Amino acid sequence: MIGAQRVDFITVPTNDVARAEAFYGDVLGLEKNPNSLHDWIEFETGNVTLALVSAEGHGREFVPLPHGSIALRVPDVEAAKAKLEAAGVECGEVWDSGACNGASFTDPDGNGIMLHHRYAPYPDGTAP
Question: CATH code for 9-118?
Answer without folding.
Answer: 3.10.180.10
